[in-house]
## 1
Amino acid sequence: MSTEALLTTLDLVGIFVFALSGASAAVAKKLDVFGVVVLGLVAATGGGAMRDVLLGATPPLVLSDWRYLVVPAVAAALTFYFHPQLAKLRRLVLLSDAAGLGLFVVAGTTKALDAGVAPLGACVVGMLTGIGGGLLRDVLLGEIPVVLRREIYAVAALLGAIVVVVSERTGVDSVGSAVAAAALVCGLRVVSLLRKWSAPTPRGVGTDGRGAPR
Amino acid sequence: MSTEALLTTLDLVGIFVFALSGASAAVAKKLDVFGVVVLGLVAATGGGAMRDVLLGATPPLVLSDWRYLVVPAVAAALTFYFHPQLAKLRRLVLLSDAAGLGLFVVAGTTKALDAGVAPLGACVVGMLTGIGGGLLRDVLLGEIPVVLRREIYAVAALLGAIVVVVSERTGVDSVGSAVAAAALVCGLRVVSLLRKWSAPTPRGVGTDGRGAPR
Amino acid sequence: MSTEALLTTLDLVGIFVFALSGASAAVAKKLDVFGVVVLGLVAATGGGAMRDVLLGATPPLVLSDWRYLVVPAVAAALTFYFHPQLAKLRRLVLLSDAAGLGLFVVAGTTKALDAGVAPLGACVVGMLTGIGGGLLRDVLLGEIPVVLRREIYAVAALLGAIVVVVSERTGVDSVGSAVAAAALVCGLRVVSLLRKWSAPTPRGVGTDGRGAPR
C-alpha cells in the first residue's frame, strides 16, 4: 500500500468513527433515520468542510470524493440499526475517536501550512478540523459543545497542531513528526479518559456536575 | 416572460415563503422586530448562501442581487405585523413552502453540477440548499432543527436532488427533468403532510411525542 | 502613528473587548479554561471570519495575522482568572463593546464595498461583521442570540452600515464619514443602554420578561 493510500485509508477510518459518534448522539436524541444519517455526516465531515472553506479550497474535499460521503452514511445507518450492540463497544469507539482526532488534526494543520497560512492560524485550522464536526453535531442537537465543557479534547488537538507547526518550521522530518503528533493527540486523549482529567473551570462560579472538575 | 425571468420569479417566490416560515418561528419565540426580520432573511437565504460558500461562488448571490434581500425583509415585516391573520393561511404557507423546497433543491443541485461537483456531492449541496435555511433558523432559535426530527422533508429534498443528478448524467432533457424533480419534492412533501408520514425513529429509545412515529 | 496603524490598533481594541464579552459568557456557563478561550476567540473573530468567507477573502485575516489570535486569547485568559474583578468594570466593558461594534461595522461594510458587493449586500456584510461574533457565541452556548432578542444592537449596526454605503455612493469624504458612522453606532448603542430602549416585539404573543418591551 502506498503512503497516500495509507493516509486516505486512515482518514476514512477517522470519518467512520466520527460518524458513529454523531449518529449515536442523534439516536440518543430520538431523531429519525434521516436525522441520524445527517448528524453522522456532519460530525464526520464538518471539521474538514470548515477547514476547506476557511482555506478557500472549495468545493471541499467531502463534495469531490464519494467515499467521504458513503463511509459516514454507512456508519450512521449501522448505528441507527445496531445502537444497542454499539453501546457495548464504547471503549473501542472512544479509542477510535481518539485516533481519528489525532489524524484529523495533523491533516488539517498540514493542509493549512501548505496553503500558506501563518503558524498560529494553522494551529487554529488544525484544531478546528479535529473538533469542528463535534461542535456542529452538538449545536445541531441543541447542546453546548462537549469539547468546550470538559475533558482534554480540544487541548490535545491544539498541542498536536503545535507539534506539526513547530516541526515544519524547524525542518524536522515531516512523516515522523506527523506520526508523533497524531500519537500525542491520541495518547493524551486516551490518558485523559482513563484518568478522568479535565481542564480547570473558573473559580467562584460553582460546577454544574457535568464535567469532572477537581 | 423568458425562461430565466420565470426561474428568477419562482426563486423569489420560494424566498418569500421561506422568509414567512422563519419570521413566524421568530414571532412565536417573541423576538423583537429586528430579530424577526433577521430570522426571515436567514431562513430564506441561508441555504443559498451555504451553497455558494461551499461552491466558492463568493460573494453569494444573496449579496449581489438586492431583490434577494428586499423580498424576504418585506415578507418578515408582513409576518411581524399580520401574524394572527397569517396563522389562518397555514395551509397555503405549507403548500408554498413545499413548492419553494422543490425549487431550491433543483436550483442548488444544478448549480453544483455546473460547478463541476461530483454527483454525490451535488446531491448534498442540492439538499443543503433546500434545508439549510431551516437548519439555521432552528439553530438560531435554540431548537433541534425540525427537518432532522420528523416528517419527510429532507428525504424529499434528497430524492429530488438524485433525480436531477441522474437525469443530467443520462442526458435526459434538463428542463423537463428539472420540473419533474421539483414536482416530486413538492408532491412528496405535501402527501407526507396530509398522511402525517414520518421517517422511522430508532428502536428501543422511546419517542418524545414530537414526531408522528408509527 | 499612521492612519493604518491607528485603524489596526482600534481593530485590536475592538477584538479585545469582544473577547471579554465571549469569555465572560463562557465563565457564566462554567466552561473550562479552554472553552472560555475558544468562546473569547469566537466572539472576537467570528464576525470578521464570516465577512471574509462571504467575500471569498480566504484564508480570513484572523488566520494570517497572529495578533488577531493572541489579543483575544489574552483577553479570554484574563477573564478566566479575574472575572470577579471584571464584573465591577461592567460599564467600561459595555462602552468598549459599543465602540468595538461601531468599528467592526464600518470596517466590514468598507471591505465589502471594496470587494465589489452591491450596496444592500454590503450593509448585510457590515452588520454581520459587527454582530456575527456575538451570534456564534450565543449559539455555542445554547442560547437564542441576544442581539435578536432585545436592545438596539443590530439596528445600530445596520444604521452604521447604511451611513457608510450612502457616503461612499455620494462621494462624501470617506475618513470623516467612517468616523461619523462608527460614532453613530457607538452612540446609539450607549443611549439605548442608558434609556433601556428596545425594538418593538410582536403584538399578541406576550413577553418573556427577558427584554425591556414597552
## 2
Amino acid sequence: MTSVKTNAKKQSYVWLDELSTKEAAVAANAGTVVIFPVGSVEEHGDHLPLCTDSIQPEYVAVEVAKRTGCLVAPPFRHGVCNAGRNFPGTMSIEFETLRMVARDVLAELVRNGFNRIIVLSGHAGSSHMVALRLAAQEVVKQSSPVSARKTRIMVLSDFDFAFEVKDLGFPETDGHAGAVETSRVMAIRPDLVKGKGKAGVMNVPRFEIVPDPEKYFEGGVNGDPTLASDAKGKAINAYVVEQVAKLVEELKCN
Amino acid sequence: MTSVKTNAKKQSYVWLDELSTKEAAVAANAGTVVIFPVGSVEEHGDHLPLCTDSIQPEYVAVEVAKRTGCLVAPPFRHGVCNAGRNFPGTMSIEFETLRMVARDVLAELVRNGFNRIIVLSGHAGSSHMVALRLAAQEVVKQSSPVSARKTRIMVLSDFDFAFEVKDLGFPETDGHAGAVETSRVMAIRPDLVKGKGKAGVMNVPRFEIVPDPEKYFEGGVNGDPTLASDAKGKAINAYVVEQVAKLVEELKCN
Amino acid sequence: MTSVKTNAKKQSYVWLDELSTKEAAVAANAGTVVIFPVGSVEEHGDHLPLCTDSIQPEYVAVEVAKRTGCLVAPPFRHGVCNAGRNFPGTMSIEFETLRMVARDVLAELVRNGFNRIIVLSGHAGSSHMVALRLAAQEVVKQSSPVSARKTRIMVLSDFDFAFEVKDLGFPETDGHAGAVETSRVMAIRPDLVKGKGKAGVMNVPRFEIVPDPEKYFEGGVNGDPTLASDAKGKAINAYVVEQVAKLVEELKCN
Amino acid sequence: MTSVKTNAKKQSYVWLDELSTKEAAVAANAGTVVIFPVGSVEEHGDHLPLCTDSIQPEYVAVEVAKRTGCLVAPPFRHGVCNAGRNFPGTMSIEFETLRMVARDVLAELVRNGFNRIIVLSGHAGSSHMVALRLAAQEVVKQSSPVSARKTRIMVLSDFDFAFEVKDLGFPETDGHAGAVETSRVMAIRPDLVKGKGKAGVMNVPRFEIVPDPEKYFEGGVNGDPTLASDAKGKAINAYVVEQVAKLVEELKCN
Amino acid sequence: MTSVKTNAKKQSYVWLDELSTKEAAVAANAGTVVIFPVGSVEEHGDHLPLCTDSIQPEYVAVEVAKRTGCLVAPPFRHGVCNAGRNFPGTMSIEFETLRMVARDVLAELVRNGFNRIIVLSGHAGSSHMVALRLAAQEVVKQSSPVSARKTRIMVLSDFDFAFEVKDLGFPETDGHAGAVETSRVMAIRPDLVKGKGKAGVMNVPRFEIVPDPEKYFEGGVNGDPTLASDAKGKAINAYVVEQVAKLVEELKCN
Amino acid sequence: MTSVKTNAKKQSYVWLDELSTKEAAVAANAGTVVIFPVGSVEEHGDHLPLCTDSIQPEYVAVEVAKRTGCLVAPPFRHGVCNAGRNFPGTMSIEFETLRMVARDVLAELVRNGFNRIIVLSGHAGSSHMVALRLAAQEVVKQSSPVSARKTRIMVLSDFDFAFEVKDLGFPETDGHAGAVETSRVMAIRPDLVKGKGKAGVMNVPRFEIVPDPEKYFEGGVNGDPTLASDAKGKAINAYVVEQVAKLVEELKCN
C-alpha cells in the first residue's frame, strides 16, 4: 500500500460510512481526520426548517472534506434544546442521551483508529455543547494511555466562526433564526426557506429557569431575517469552511 | 384550515425536519404517520459500504412517504452490532444508548402529536431490535393515559419483508451482505457497490458468547453476493415498499 | 489433593451452594463447569403453574449435573415477560434488573474460578435472552485479559433443543404452554399439572408494540396442550439433557 | 366465589409460583400474605454450606405458610456480602442489583394484588438489609395512592428473632456460622453439615473499610459451632416460625 | 400566627438549618426565599485559597439574607472543574453528582414549601452551571402541577454581576484568580490571601478537549491579581449584594 | 522542603480548602490525615436546630485537627433521613446521591495524595451509613493497586463514641434529639438551643416500612432532653474528640 494510493482512495469518498470495511482500515491507517456533524430538530421561526441546525454543519463538513481529504461521520440530527423546546416540531433529547451518543460515536471512531476528530455542532445551546464536551473529555481521558498516536478531539459549534464575519450590516444581537442563519440556509438549501421571516427578539429571563420559555420568545426568532441574503450566506459559509479546514490541517500535523 | 390544504402541504415534504414549526403543527394535527429509519455503521463484506443497513430503510421510508403522504424523521445511522463488531469500520453503540435515543425520539414525536410511528431498522440483530422495542414499549405505556388519540408504534426490520420474496434463486441461508442485501444496494446506490463480492458463511457458535466472533466469520459475508442483481434488488425493494405502505395505511385508519 | 479425590467430591453435590467454602475452592480448581438456570413467574394457561419456565431448566440442569459432574448455581426464577405480562400471577422484572443479576452472578462465578458456564433459561422471550447475552458478553470481555484459563460462557434456552424433537405429532406452531411444555411438566412435576388445558393461539400483532398483548392471546396458550403426554415429555427431556450434557463436555475440553 | 373455597385453594400450595394464573388471581383477591425469602451464597466456615443463609428463611417461610395459609414467593438466593466476600465460594452481588431485584419483585407482587408482604432475609449484613429496605420504601411510597387496600411491607432478617432465644448456653457474641446458625442448619438440612466446625472470632476493624476483611476473620466463623445441637436448632426454628407467623396474622388483619 | 411575628422570626436567623422544625414550617409558610450557595475546591493561584469560589457566594448570600430576610441553605462546596482540575488541591466532582445534589436539595426545599430559590454559584464553569440549570429545570418541571404557589428558581454565578462593575482599572480579560476575585477575597477573608499573586493568562485551546489543561495555564491565574485591593473588593461585593437582593425582592413579589 | 517546615504549615490551617494549591501539595506530601464531616438537615425536636447532626461532627473534627494537625475537608451537610423525613424542615437526599458525593470527595482526596481519611458523620441512620461505607469501599478497592502508600479510610458516626460515655444519668434508650445530643449542642452552640425540649419516644414499627413514620414519633424526640446540661455535653464532646484523635494517630502510623 503506497500513500499515493491511499490518498486516491480517501479523496473518492466524503462520508465515512460509504467506505467498505477494508477502505475504512486504509483510511484509519492513513491518519484521516473525521468530522462528526451534530444538529437538532428545532423551531427556527416560520421561515426556516426544523433542520436548520443540521444542514449548516453538514454543509461545512462536506466542503471541508472535499478540500482536505478528511471524512464525515454519519450526522446526529438531534440536540438538547432550551428556549425553543416547546414550539411545535422541536424534538429535544435528554442531556444524558446526547452525551452517550457522542461518547459511543467518539469511542468507536478512536477504537477504529480514527483518533483525530472534530465534533461540529450546528446547535450551540450551553447544555448541548457541555454534553458534547463531557463526552469528548471521557474519550480523550480513556484513550490517552492506550493509543500509540495521541487522541485529539475538538468540539465546536459552527456559530463560533459564523458570527466572526463582520461588515454584513447585521446587528450585534443577531442570533437564533436571525440574519446569519437565514443567509446561510439561503445559500445551502434555498428550497427550504419559506418566505422572508419576521424580526423578533428572545426575552427569556436571564437567570430564572422557566417552564415556558416560548412565552418570552414570540415568533421564535432572535434577530432580523429580512436582512439576510444568499450572497451574505455564501460569504459566511466560505469563512466557516476555511476556518474548519484549518483545524483539520492542524489535527493532521502531529 | 381545510383538509385539502393540509394534504397539499403534507405532500410537498418527505423529511419531517424540512418542515417549519408551523408546518409541523399542521402535519401533527392531520394525524400524519412518521417513519423513523434506524441503520448501522457495520462491515458488509468487501463489496458493500458500512452504511448498507442505513440506506435500505431510508430508501424504503422515502418511497413510502412519497406514496402515502407520511413523513420521515431524521434517521439514526448507528446500531448495536454483534458478529461484525470487531471488523474495521464497524461502530457499535451501547445497547442502552440505542434504547435512550429511540425512547427520546419516539417520546418527542408523541409529545408533538405524531403518535402513529413506524420504527424501520435496516439492522436486524436481536440486541438492536430489543433496544428499539423496549423504547417503544416505554413510550406506548407512558403515553396511553395522556393522549386523546391512542399512540400506536410499530417496530420492524425491513429484512422482515425482504426475505419474504421468493423465486429469486437465492439459497435459504442467505443473510448478512449476501444476495438479498447486495441486490438491494445495487438497486438503491449502485455507486457504492465495490465489485461482486465473495460468497461466505457465518459460523459464529450457536450458544457461546465469544469475544472474537470475526474468527468465525471470515470475509464478513453470509451468503453468495455473486447471485445478486440490480433487477432482483428492485423487485425486493418494491415488495418491501408495498408492505410498509400497507402498515402506514393501517396506522392511519383508527 | 489428587484428581481422584476431587472427582469424588464433585460427584457428591449437584447444587453449587450446598458446598462449603473449601469444597467450592476444590471444585473451582478442578475446572468444574457450572449451569446457571433462569426461569420466570409467568402465566402458562389454566393447566400449568407459573413456574413452568423455571422447573424445566432446573430439571435439565440437575440431570446433566448427575451425569457430567458439573454443578448447578442457585436458580434465578424471574424473567422479562412480554405477551403474558398482564395476566394474573405474571411477575415481569425490568430488562436492566435481569441483566445486572446475570452479570453479577456470572462475574462472581468467574472471580471464584468457575469460568466455564452455561446459562440455561426456561423462558425464551427475545428481551429476556438479550439481557442474558449482554450480561455474558460483558463478563467474557472483562475477564479475557485477567484469567489464565479462558472464560467461556454459553447462553441458551432449553427450548432451543426441546423443539428439535420431531415425530411427536405436535403441530409446527406449538409454543407457549402448548404440547411440548405441557408434556415436559407432566414428566417433571405431574402434581403441578392442573387438568388437560385448552388449545389456543397467540395472535399478538407482528410488529405493533401493544400495551395489552393479552387481548390477542385469549387463554394464554399457544398450541394444543391436549396432545401432551408424560411419555412425550420424558422423551423431550431426555433429548434436552443429552444435548446440554454435550455442551458441558465441550466446555470441559479446553 | 366463596371464602371457603378460597381458603381451600390457598391451603393446597405453599409456593406462589406453583399456582396457575387463575389460582394466583384467586389468592390475590383473598388478600393472601406473601413471604419473599432472600438468602446469600456465602462462606460459613468449613462445616456449613454456602447456602446457609438461604435455607434458614426458606424453611421458616414454608413452615409459616403451612400454618397460616400464606404463600412463599420464589426465593432470591444472592446477597451483598461484606466480611466473607473474599472467601472461596462467596458470590456477592452489587448493592444496586439487590435493590432492583427486590424492588421489581415487590412491585410485581403489589401490581398483582399481593400487597401484604414480608421480606425475610437469612443474611443480615447492613448493606444487604438497607438495599431491601430502600426497595420496600420505594414500592410502599409508589403504591400508596393507587391501591384501594393499603400496601404493607415488612423487612426483617430471621436473625432478628433467632438471637432472641436465650438459655441455650451460647455466648452473647455468637454470630456468623456460630452455634445458632449451626444448630438451625442441623435441624433443617443435617446432610449439609460437614463436621462439627471450629470456634472462631471476627476481628474485622470497627471503622476501617478494609479491602481484605478475611485477614481479620480466620476460619470464617464468629462463635463456637461445637456448642450446636439439632435439638437447639429445632427450638430456635420453632420460635422464629412462631414469631413470623404472628407477623403474617398482623398483616392479614387490616 | 401573624405576619408580624413571622417576620420577626425570619429576621433572627440567616442559615436555614439553624431553624428548628417548627421554625422552618413558619418560614416556609411565610414564603421565605432561600439562597443555595454552591462553590468549589479549586486551585486559585498561589495567593488565593482553594475555597475562593465558596466564600464569595456565601458572603453575598449572608449579606442579602440580613438585608431581605431570606434564608441561606447549607452551602455545597464542591464543583465540576475544568481548566484547573489537575492542579494540586483541586477536587472536581462528576457532572452527574453535582446535578443530583442540586436536584435533591431543590426538590427537598420545594417539598418543604420553600419554592422561591436562588442557586448562587461562585464557580462559573460551563459544565458546572449546566448541571445546576438541568437540576433546576427538572424540579421546576415536576413541581409545576402540584404546588398551589408557582415554583420559581433562579440559577446564576455571582460572576454574572461581579464583572459588571467597571471603572476599577482592571483589564477586560480579567478572570480566574485575577484582580476581581483577589479583591473580593481581600474584602471577605483577608486572612486567606497569601501574598499579592502573580499575573498570568489562560491559554487553554479554544476548541480542543485536552487531558492536561494545566500545561496551558501556568500559575493558574487568568488576569493580574496585583491590581487588586480591599476597597475594590468591597465595591464589587456591595454591587453583587445589591443585585442579588433585587432578585430576592422580585421572587417575593408574586 | 524539610518536615519541620511542613509541620509548621500544617498547623496553621484546620480547613483543607483554606489552603492554596501549593500548600495543599505540601500537606498531601506530608501524609496529612483528612476528616470529612457529614451531617444532615433534619428535625431534632422543637428545641434543637435542623443542623444538629452537622455541627457535632464539625466541632469534633476541628478540635481533633487542632490537636493532631490533621485537616478538615469541606463538610457535606445533607443526609439520608428516615424516621424524621416528613417533619417540616427535614431535607433528605437520595441514597445514591449521598453515595456519589462521598465517592467523589474520597476519590478526589486520594487522587490528590490525601489517602488517610476519616468520614465522620453526625447522622447515624443505617441507609446513610451504608451509603458512606459503600463509597469508601469503592474508593479503597480502586486505589489499592495504584497508590504507593496504602489508602486507608475509616467511616464512623460520632454517636459510635458519644453513647459510650456512661454515668451521666441518662436512660439507656436515649437517642435522637435526646439528652446526649441536647447536651452536646448546648456545649457547642448554646445559641441554637431553643428551650429545654420535651421527652418523647420513637415508636416506629420494628419491621414494617411505613410511609408515615412521623405518626409513630410524636414530637420527634427519642429520649429526655430535659436531662441535658452544658457540662455533660462538654464531657461527651471531650471523650469523642479524644477517641477520634486516636484514630487519626493510628492512621498516621503506617
